[in-house]
Design brief:
Largest sheet: none
Order of helices and strands: HHHHH
Shape: elongated
Strand content: under 5%
Number of helices: 5
Distance between the termini: 28 Å
Structural class: mainly alpha
Length: 161
């Protein structure tokens, strides 16, 4: 499981890095040489979608998404586990159909391509769909850990806003 989580974190980080590099190089080229990278705008939008889906997977597994712990803080250990389990189940209930629908989008993209370089959108949506599946799988893994007691949040200090 640790390797899957590490790989998911790496994929999300790599795509964030690619967005930053593409944007920085495009700005530098535009300002210095009055030339821009073809499809930079479409490329950054597509890379952002990939990074978001993979980032959702990472945040879901670590429970690092934004949370309001008003109720959680006042519960006993058993109540916290139940609340964490319900939250995990709801998260899984949203992520699993989302993964399914993103894969439906991949299959429906057909021969659509980017404007300048005519790169097939299927490549980008396919990688994003894998991130959506990783989100559902890691939500299921987190839920399983919570049910087994391995991911018992009451033993940890929450870093909530």
């Amino acid at each position: 499981m640790k390797r899957l989580v590490a790989a998911t974190e790496t994929v999300a980080a790599v795509f964030l890095l690619l967005i930053a590099l593409l944007t920085a190089f495009n700005v530098a080229l535009r300002d210095l040489l009055a030339w821009q990278i073809p499809d930079w705008f479409d490329g950054t939008k597509l890379l952002m979608a990939i990074a978001l889906f993979w980032g959702i997977a990472v945040a879901t597994y670590h429970g690092g998404h934004i949370a309001v712990d008003i109720v959680w803080e006042h519960l006993q250990r058993r109540g916290r586990r139940v609340l964490d389990g319900v939250a995990g189940l709801i998260t899984l209930a949203f992520l699993a159909p989302m993964a399914w629908m993103v894969f439906a989008k991949v299959l429906a993209s057909g021969t659509q391509a980017t404007t300048d370089l005519r790169l097939p959108l299927m490549w980008f949506t396919g990688i994003a769909a894998c991130g959506a599946v990783a989100g559902a799988v890691l939500a299921l893994a987190r839920l399983a850990e919570l049910l087994r007691g391995d991911g018992d949040a009451s033993d940890e200090v929450r870093d909530g806003p």
